[in-house]
Amino acid sequence: MTAIVNETVSVKKKPSGRRVIFASAFGNALEFFDFGVYNFFVVYISTLFFPPSADHNVALLLAFATFGVSFFMRPLGGIIVGAWADRFGRKPAMVFTIALMSLGTLMIGIAPTYETAGYWGTATLVLARLIQGVAAGGEVGASMSLLVESAPANRRGFYSSWSLATQGLATTFGGVVALGLSAWLPFATGSETVMAEWGWRVPFFIGVLLAPIGCWLRLSLENDVPEPVRNKKAATSESAFSLLLQHKATIVNGVLLAIGSTVATYISLFYYGTWAAKYLAMPQHYSHAAMLLAGVITFVGALLVGMLCDSVGRKKLILISRVMVLLCSWPSFWLLVNYPSPGMLLTVVFVMVSFTTLGGVPVMLLISELLPKRIRALGFALVYSIGVAIFGSFAQYFATQSIVLLDSLTAPAWYLGGGTLLSMLALLYVKEPAKELQ
Q1: Looking at domain 17-427, what is its CATH homologous superfamily?
Q2: Is 0.90 topped by the overall pTM?
């Protein structure tokens, strides 16, 4: 009778998929809001934290470089937090990443400007972005592993789609906050310069204030996370490293797939709007509106694509996505240069983000499914972070630099197309994963 009672209690404690999704999704959205809100205010940051320059390209390049340098910390975060998650469970790693991301966000919110503190202000901004990079690198592996491992075999696509969907949700929330502040603060204060003076800091404080909710939700998953590796010998870093080497083909192909996803994501979600504001003289609120639209499409589209993954498969969707992004790369910039208008900007963003999202979900799912559980969080975080660090991190920097070097406003299309081709190459060497996880 006791055994039966204990078994019943165990069943009751089994986590529901809805609970796992919500706890993972809220924290993931919060972290990517903290990480990505920098992009919404990069025009202000570029003038406040770097030495004054007569060339507006220089300040913008420095701001994008600061954004990009954080991505080089993501592999480090992936190694440390991913190995921790594989050995001790997903929950503690996911709580830690929220706390760490919030620290970096708070530092940006209170950082002194270049005018106030000189290069100390710049150094504070860079250090904060490095801290955020470590947190983001660790978050993606632990949360993605939790979603994939908690899902029924026939719903892995839908479960895993929440990882990308919440990034879109974070962008949407960031866009709403940016648009709201840009419209309300000048009206409420009677100052047209209030956003540049201090208004841009408000979203960072919002992110910090929401962090305790994310931590609480993830702490509630105490009995819901997959059990950590029991065999201590198998859980050593040497064993993890040897397992990674056994899956080196998956690692290499995964990096190439991630390159295509991250280049397309950061160009379509963030760069089009900033590029239009800087080079086509569109008002800043249209840039925010484009990012807001991109976030909505990513959120809704990712969930729909996740369901498609469960019925159609991974590789077909990735191939269609990559072909369409490649074909639309140059025309998207050409149309905006020759027919500049808010309507054209929103149309281009809608099309490019839709095709990008079509490939984003199956790429993340495919990589995680091809890795065994003992190194899934570490392997996925490492693969995705390396791909992001190589191409995605400085996507906006290189896109802007290509305009300077080629003296053409359509030059970023070459960067977008190149990353897409590398991703298509990897598709030749990967197979559809088995239904049962390793």
Answers
A1: MFS general substrate transporter like domains (1.20.1250.20)
A2: no
Greater confidence (68 vs 37) lies with 37
Does an H or E element contain 373, and which?
none
298 and 426 Cβ atoms separated by less than 8 Å: no
R_g of the chain, CA atoms, integer Å: 21
Which residue matches tokens 């390396």? 386
The secondary structure of 311-361 as a DSSP string is: HH-SHHHHHHHHHHHHHHHHHHHHHHHHS--HHHHHHHHHHHHHHHHHHHH
Q: What integer pLDDT is reported at residue 6 of this predicted model?
A: 44
Angle at 73 between CA 72 and CA 75, to 5 degrees: 85
pLDDT of residue 233: 47
Helix axes 56-69, 395-406, angle to 10 degrees: 150
* pLDDT at res. 16: 61
Judge whether 321 and 280 are in contact, CB under 8 Å. Answer: no
- Residue 7 clears pLDDT 50, i.e. is over it: no
The C-alpha atoms of residue 229 and residue 246 are separated, in whole angstroms, by 19
CA distance 82 to 86: 6
Residue 144 CB contacts under 8 Å (≥ 6 apart), including other chains: 160, 163, 364, 368, 377, 380
- List of residues 6+ apart from 216 with CB closer than 8 A: none
Q: How many CB atoms lie within 10 A of CB 12?
A: 8
Amino acid occupying residue 244 = L
